[in-house]
Specification:
Number of strands: 4
Strand content: 5-15%
Number of helices: 7
Helix content: 25-40%
Amino acid sequence: MLGRRAGPGEVGEHPEVVGTGVQADALRAQPWRVEVASGATRERLVDALRAAHAANRISVDFPHSDDMYSEVQQARRAAFGAGLYGALGIAPGDQASRAAYNEESLRFYGAPHAAFLFVDGDGGHRLASDVGAYLQTLLLAMTAYGVASCPQGLLSFYADTVRAELGVGEGRLLVGVSFGYADESAPVNRVTAGRAPLDEVTTFHG
């Protein structure tokens, strides 16, 4: 969330937020590791991520392709993107401005903290789904504490860079989450995401 302002000691005041997802996975194996970057570490990581991005040093632990989305899902993504860039005053054909905004994600959109969620074990998709459940619980817990958050898939495109800067030797990077206190005056924080009707995504049997 662009314009998110820093608050005094979010991590130090509420460390229990990160540990809140202990019941998120079905077998209670907790196959995740969370690495939180703040302060000087955050600044070094921002510089390293920007350098990796400029040099196109992409390293992903979980492959990604636009082809993984169906036609309907692509349409939903496009609708959200149009609303987002429209709120920012970026025209559909303004690729330079879009690229500049996307690079802001490597600065965590101004947030003072970033959490990186790693999948432990063999890092397979079953374990990744448990970490996804923990991620949702983490985001809800942050909201309950009044902390804004933004999960960022792009941060996982530079997994080797994140590992090197944070000294992480094991695990596969699934996602990064920027968090802090929101600047409610920032236009991006007034963007809302639509949701598909229930009957498009759910079927009740019986």
